[in-house]
Specification:
Shape of chain B: globular
Helix content of chain A: 25-40%
CATH topology of the largest domain in chain A: Peroxisomal Thiolase, Chain A, domain 1
Strand content of chain A: 15-25%
Largest interface: A-B, 73 and 77 residues
Oligomer: heterodimer
Number of helices of chain B: 9
Low-confidence stretches of chain B: none
Structural class of chain B: alpha+beta
Radius of gyration of chain A: 19 Å
CATH architecture of the largest domain in chain A: 3-Layer(aba) Sandwich
Number of strands of chain A: 15
Strand content of chain B: 15-25%
Order of helices and strands of chain B: EEHHEHEHEHEEEEEEEHEHHHEE
CATH architecture of the largest domain in chain B: 3-Layer(aba) Sandwich
CATH class of the largest domain in chain A: Alpha Beta
Low-confidence stretches of chain A: none
Largest sheet of chain A: 5 strands, mixed
Order of helices and strands of chain A: EEHHEHEHEHEEEEEEEHHEHHHEE
Strand order of the largest sheet of chain A: 1-9-6-4-5
Number of domains of chain A: 2
CATH topology of the largest domain in chain B: Peroxisomal Thiolase, Chain A, domain 1
Radius of gyration of chain B: 19 Å
């Protein structure tokens, strides 16, 4: 092993222009958005697909990501999908990564996609892809891509006690073997199999093929609340930092999903972060877009000019209590 | 390129109920588009019967395979660091939101693992998974034992994958161990032709007929057979050649060094075409599985490997090539040193 590290070369998001307010979405789903719930969620509006497919958004995000890096699609060695919500056709027989490969002209590439774990699926993709690039000197570029389009009428997660409002969007990130900076130093992930069905779609597949009421994303709120989400993330963050010879105090910024104000505050408190150390500005305007949140918030940190060479950035996610993860980046 | 990682053990599970092929053809409609090759699909396919899961779930089929491999290898599930599903057809719940990996983790009590699944590659998902997992194990000194598994259950009336094969329900599982002295994964090569992403697919629930809830054909595979014949078939062997050559080059080996081939059990004509193209004598490739059970998607790579090994076709020291293609379309080749 020659210990060549992988780094982030560029990233991009593609979001639908159409937007709906949280108030409208609650009304459409027969729910009352009280001031208490609104304050707890902190989501004011979300981007919503209005005829576009997830894979079209994914292609657009990928093309922009490659353009930003001035890397032609023909140089991409692997296309990796971290989408969580259902795609146009059923995964795994079909996966949009093949369409992305075709549309960006990544003719020499192969495709890989990962399933499960909510937003943490992005960290799973990052972890495996960085490893693939590091062990293989014939590979140079990897294009990570995700596109999540919410099931119609299913934007308020757990209507009985809302946990988030889900928006639509796509994102892409280009990784390079031997990149000059923004290196992926390590990733720690742990899943709790007991919660494999804490965040899933109970119908529309082999188990419950007929009842349309079951074709929606559900969250088991009781298990979600009971899961040691922040404690697990904190331990994983300490583990990944420890492997790099660092402490939590060495981390300048943390990238975290846009589930709710309540969730972000719990995370910030557990990690002892100042408000300016975590990007929360996208929550109100985008809601939760699964793993795309992490790319969106990473881009916001980058665009604000906050990140300086040598800074350490953690990317954390609890995967709704099933799969927690922490990745360490050195800018 | 990989650390020293070997196949510690492999196992499979087939549901006990068998369905003769004549019954499959009787029960299921078949496309009438003629095949590119001059063959009669029903007469020439070479499969006697397939196993059907019936009331068993896809997850339980997978779990049974995992339990068998753990029992054979005598490992403690708490020592497993990674669990990776590589099932290539729809499972109990919708992917990519869910995979059976977490369920398997729970049922095995593999409390220290992290469980995920790879959802690309079709029947070549095994090679994609080998490449991904061996890479991750090679770069992380705390990852030493990985469980790879798949569990396939097709909808009751979707065993006929005309014009390719007839499919069987079942599951396979493989344990990979770092610093294992035998069955070393020397190299893995994978290619995808994304331009063929829309040749083979399953429509999904949003495409159902809401007036006929009992009609589950939206869960059945659909294919563009014209493009299958005109765009896939012409490049198929070429792509096999690329991945096989790639895997050999990475390992510094020559085609003549390969002692045995594990290849999917799609059909008799497909196996013959592959052997002819690569001048492989029949005794160097495991073909008996075709008649016994037909095609098990990605699990072909596990079941045929296990049977070839257990029936004495693979010997210590042999270099074994596991190669397949799959929906997407992808081609994969993995070189294993026994």
């Amino acid at each position: 092993m020659d210990n060549v590290k992988t780094g982030i070369v560029s990233a991009a998001c593609r979001l639908p222009e159409h937007r709906r307010s949280a108030m409208e979405l609650f009304q459409e789903e027969g729910l009352n958005l009280t001031s208490e719930v609104a304050a707890r969620l902190g989501v004011e509006q979300v981007p919503i697909c209005n005829g576009q497919s997830g894979s079209d958004l994914a292609v657009a995000a990928s093309l922009r990501c490659l353009e930003n890096a001035a890397v032609p699609g023909s140089e991409v060695d692997v296309v990796v999908d971290y989408t969580i919500l259902p795609q146009e056709w059923m995964v795994p027989v079909w996966n949009m990564s093949g369409k992305v490969q075709k549309e960006v002209g990544a003719e020499k590439a192969f495709t890989v996609g990962f399933s499960g774990g909510g937003s943490t699926n992005f960290l799973v993709a990052l972890n495996y892809t960085a490893a693939m690039l590091e062990v293989d000197d014939k590979m140079k570029y990897a294009l990570l891509v995700g596109a999540d389009v919410t099931i119609p009428g299913n934007r308020v997660l757990n209507p009985e006690s809302p946990v988030s409002v889900m928006g639509d969007g796509a994102s892409a990130m280009l990784l390079q073997r031997g990149a000059p900076g923004r290196l992926v130093l390590g990733t720690e992930i742990l899943s709790d199999g007991a919660n494999h069905d804490i965040y899933y779609i109970p119908g529309g597949c082999l188990a419950n093929p007929e009842d349309p009421k079951l074709y929606r994303m559900v969250l088991d709120k009781q298990r979600y609340d009971a899961a040691p989400k922040t404690a697990t993330m904190l331990q994983l963050a300490k583990d990944v930092l420890d492997r790099a010879g660092l402490k939590l105090g060495d981390v300048k910024y943390v990238v975290y999903p846009n589930i709710s104000v309540e969730d972000q505050e719990a995370f910030r408190t557990a990690f002892g972060l100042r408000p300016d150390q975590i990007c929360t500005s996208n929550l109100a305007t985008h809601g939760h877009m699964q793993g795309n949140d992490l790319v969106l918030n990473y881009l916001s940190l980058s665009a604000n000019g906050e990140l300086q060479a040598g800074d350490y950035v953690l990317i954390c996610s609890h995967g709704m209590g099933f799969m927690a993860g922490a990745s360490l980046i050195r800018i | 390129m990989f650390a020293k990682i070997g196949i510690l053990e492999a196992a499979y599970y087939l549901p006990p109920t068998r369905k003769p092929l004549a019954d499959v053809f009787r029960d299921e409609q078949q496309d009438e588009t003629p095949l590119a090759a001059n063959v009669d699909f029903q007469r020439d396919i070479g499969i006697e019967a397939v196993h059907v899961a019936g009331e068993e779930s896809a997850s339980s089929v997978a779990l049974n395979a995992c339990k068998k491999v753990i029992e054979k290898a005598k490992v403690d599930p708490r020592d497993i660091d990674l669990i990776v599903g590589f099932t290539s057809i729809p499972e109990d719940y919708i992917a990519p939101t869910w995979s059976a990996a977490g369920y398997v983790q729970k049922e095995l009590g593999a409390t220290h693992a992290f469980a995920t699944a790879i959802n690309t590659g079709g029947c070549a998902s095994y090679q994609q998974t080998l490449k991904s997992v061996c890479s991750l194990m090679s770069t992380n000194d705390r990852l030493n034992l990985a469980l790879l598994f798949a569990g396939d259950k097709v909808p009751a009336l979707n065993h006929n994958y005309y014009p390719i094969t007839v499919v069987c329900d079942g599951g396979g599982a493989v344990l990979l161990k770092k610093n294992h002295d035998r069955n070393l994964i020397l190299s893995v090569e994978v290619i995808t032709a994304g331009k063929l992403h829309d040749v083979w697919w399953v429509p999904g629930f949003p495409h159902r007929n809401p007036d006929k809830p009992e009609d589950h054909s939206w869960m059945h595979v659909a294919g563009d057979i014209k493009r299958f014949n005109t765009e896939l078939i012409p490049i198929n062997l070429l792509m096999f050649r690329k991945v096989i050559r790639g895997a050999l080059q990475r390992a510094g080996k020559k085609p003549a060094d390969v002692k045995y081939y594990v290849y999917p059990t799609f059909s008799s004509w497909d196996q013959k075409a592959f052997c002819r193209a690569f001048t492989i004598p029949p005794e160097k490739m495991f073909t008996a599985g075709l008649q016994r059970h037909g095609h098990l998607q990605e699990t072909d790579m596990v079941i045929d490997y296990v049977d070839a090994r257990d029936e004495g076709y693979i010997h210590p020291g042999d270099l074994v090539m596991l190669t397949t293609n799959g929906a997407g379309f992808s081609w994969g080749a993995a070189l294993v040193q026994h």
